Amino acid sequence: MSKFALLVRLATDRMDAAAERMRKAQLAHAQAENTLEQIKGYISDYQQRMLALGQTGTSVAQWADYRLFLQKLDDAREQQSREVDRSMQRFLMEKQAWLQQRKQLKSYEVLQEREKARLALRQRRQEQKALDEFAARPKPQ
Questions:
Q1: pLDDT digits (tens, 9 = 90+) for 2-56
Q2: Least buried of 42, 77, 126, 139, by fewest C-beta within 10 Å?
Q3: What is the pTM of this model?
């Protein structure tokens, strides 16, 4: 077993954990965007209802209730929009962490491959030396 095998295994574990965190952050971002789109749909629906009420006539109290509810929906949209931004930042941070772990793993793998090549070269040289020594022996008569 190579002296780099443990480093490669640990780096692989860290990269896998970082990938899982990135996946979860990506999922959270998608959910935040979905929630934002739902809120926007509610706003659109209630705006249409308000227009319909305005055309058919409504009481001042009912109109005020619709305006208040639309304001609450608009506040929710703003809050969710900030959540979408935060979730995107979290995803980008987790992606950067994953990229860093992947870079470290690749570095260890390169070192491991170099060590393997160096050992193979040493072995070939030892074998060649043994063959040369065998060939240089005086042959029995």
A1: 788 999 999 999 999 999 999 999 999 999 999 999 999 999 999 998 888 778 8
A2: 139
A3: 0.75
CA atoms within 13 A on the CB side of 54: 9
Q: Residue 15 to residues 1, 74, 109: CA-CA distances in angstroms?
A: 21, 40, 13
- Token digits of residue 95: 């992606």
Q: Are 104 and 8 in contact (CB under 8 A)?
A: no
- Secondary structure in 3-state letters for 20-62: HHHHHHHHHHHHHHHHHHHHHHHHHHHHHHHHHHHHHCCCHHH
pLDDT in tens, 99-116: 999 999 999 999 999 999
